[in-house]
Amino acid sequence: MTRRELVQAGGAALGVSSAIGAQASAGQPIEYRNFFGDLHNHNQVGYAQGTLERSFEIARNHLDFYAFTPHSYWPDMGAYDGRIETKWRNGFYVAKANWPEVVRLARQYDDPGRFVTILGYERHGAAEGDYHILFPDLKGDYELIDSLPALQKFARERGCILVPHHPANRLGHRGINARAVDPRVSPVLEIHSEGGSAEHDRAPNPYKRHTEGGRWTKHTLQHYLAQGMRFGVVASTDDHLGYPGAYREGLAAVKTTELTREAIFDAIRNRRTYAVTGDRIDLDFHLNGRIMGQELPYTRQRSLHIEVRGWDVVDRVEVLKNNRVVHRDFPMDAVPTAESWRRPVALRFEYGWGPWPALGWGGTADWEFTIAVENGKIEAVQPCFVTGPLDEFRRDRILERTETSVKVRSFTALKQQVDDYSQKAIVLRVQGAPETRVTVTCTRPRPCSLTQTFAQLSESNEMLFTAKFPWESAMLHRVVFEENHLSRFTFEDEDDGKEANWYYVRVVQANGELAWSSPIWVEKA
Fold it and tell me: What are the C-alpha distances in Å from 501 to residues 23, 41, 218, 367, 494?
């Protein structure tokens, strides 16, 4: 099935983008849609794993935009135990030698309106921190400028964006030097990736994997905001198995009127961005009519409008003012009624439980299945594909989609995963009724099927076993009613203006997936 056939009219990939945001501009509302992509991702062009073309194929299959950012240079690299720096230097040579092929594939896969590619690469810095450099076009220049001030000057003149990432590392250990950040070219901060979350030092998803020493309080988003710095936020995977957009590792969301590189860069420069960990949560946040990322002159009265649509039960939506929660909404506590069936429900099919490595047996399982809905209509689909196992010959794909069915080819194994999650998932948004029947029919890994009504799934989930223990199994989750995955409210606040204030929104789903808005700032009186 082609990507265009998967796109809803006026929407983005797989129907997951929305137009819930509107901003008043010169008296005219601007309707923004949410597009989701990965701005920081690695493969074997550099010193990670996975082929280059595989990364572009995966990105095009399920993302709206993609920047492959090969490890390219490290001006202040030292000598380390085991001479590990040799591996990194070799990776830099590989990146430089293959840059023409990166440019060729970026041009080949670029298809504005359907899928946008962005050229970029990564600069390491022990003293100043790591950045990935994003280019506004596909010209293909490759400027490895050692000095950060000189690189920032180049970025200003060239129209590039420099995104600091894993910022919460300790200063001197590849944590960013905030005093050296130029907000003209670094308007956003990557606050989540496979390495963890940098919102604050006690936030969920602590630093792990290829970072040093955990999160330093003084290098977290909340500390930067408290020091008067003004960053918008994005997330991206920083995945090292060549899997762009891997679920749970982070995605960047941009609010634009169209899916073009120019529009994406405009959104980033104006901090019209937000960050999600995995589920492509729609998040809209305005203050006195101004959208996330903006700055307002002092006003005593502040009217904050928040709208969230999740893909699972939304546990809570929090409004933070100056890093403190000042309001919470709890969609999880809403009680569905008979009227709830008039609105779409979310239905998640999760698959991939199976033999764990301690058994010493089992391998990669190939999946092919169809989810069919009887007496209902599929309105949107979200894929949740995780990074592992690394495989050059298999692909996670939505093969077909109609208003009543989705056919998927995929593969799972409990290896090369973040936090040992081997399961992948497909989530449907379905308009149905208690008598709506959903049937999952597998042809692989073994013929099997499961049928449940929505009435049954409103009471309990149900499992699909492909064979006896310990072979692969799957689950149809309980349906999620709209009042439990949608939050829409207005919060009124006032302030005496003695200090500048900032507000942002944090979304926490019951399944642990998160979203954070870029802040809105109100100047002091």
Answer: 21, 34, 19, 51, 11
Cα 214 → chain centroid: 22
What strands, in cross-sheet order, belong to the sheet with 188-193? 196-197, 188-193, 232-235
Instruction: Give CA–CA dist 234/236, Å, rounded.
Output: 7
Q: What is the pLDDT of residues 350-370, one digit of tens each?
A: 999 998 777 777 789 999 999
Nearest to 449 by CA among 437, 462, 464: 464
Contact 220, 171 (CB under 8 A): no
Q: Which residue in 45, 110, 367, 383 sits closest to 245, CA to CA?
A: 383
Closest CA to 235 of 524, 507, 520: 507
Number of helices (H), then strands (E), in the chain: 8, 32
pLDDT at 29: 66
Q: Which residue has the tokens 């909340």?
A: 222
Read off the pLDDT of residues 52-111 as tens digits, 9 standing for 90 and up.
999 999 999 999 999 999 999 999 999 989 998 999 999 999 999 999 999 999 999 999
Query: Rounded to whole angstroms, what are the CA distances from 34 to 48, 266, 269, 287, 482?
Result: 30, 14, 16, 18, 19
CA angle (55 as vertex; 54, 61 as ends), nearest 5: 90
Spatial separation of the C-alpha atoms in residues 239 and 418, rounded to whole Å:
10
Beta bridge partners of 306: 285, 489
- pLDDT tens digit string along 306-315? 999 999 999 9
Render pLDDT for 279-314 as a digit per residue (tens, 0 to 9). 999 999 999 999 999 999 999 999 999 999 999 999
Helical spans, DSSP H, in 227-289: 261-269
DSSP state of 86: H
Contact 430, 406 (CB under 8 A): no
- The pLDDT score that the predictor gives to residue 314 is 98
